[in-house]
Amino acid sequence: MPYNDSRRLFVNTIVAEKTAALLKLKKLFFKALTKYSPARTKYYPVTQKPLPSLSFCILMDLVGYATFALPFFGEFFDLLWAPVSAMIYWRTFGGFKGFLGGGLTFLEELLPGTDIIPTFTITWFMQYSRRKKPDYTVRPFTR
Fold first, then answer.
1. What are the boundaries of each domain within the chain?
2. Over the stretch 92-107, which tens digit does the pLDDT of each residue have?
3. Of 49, 71, 119, 137, which sits most exposed with the smallest number of CB within 10 A?
4. What is the pTM of this model?
């Protein structure tokens, strides 16, 4: 093997190692656009998770309130609605907070008299108020 070929091989391995290290660093701070072509993947900054719609949260709370309409069957419906509500809450809000809130929603639906608490809507307002809002600068129109 001639000298130039061995040197080229050595340089190519160093470049490949640095590229692999840079890709690992990018994966830590950025989310991949596609998973199918990792060598050609472009990375973009991670954006905020979208909130569920307010109307969806109000609808879920209204379904929970519907148990008050039927005097005897309402408590039986609470037994069926509590795990469904907890799963919907967890899938809607996600993460550890969604898991913890799903457990609290489960207890809220099971305990008598606590169905009136609008858990979904309260969580929506809490997350909406904590979101990072983009800064808009207003520049005066001058010539």
1. 3-45, 54-130
2. 888 888 899 999 999 9
3. 137
4. 0.59
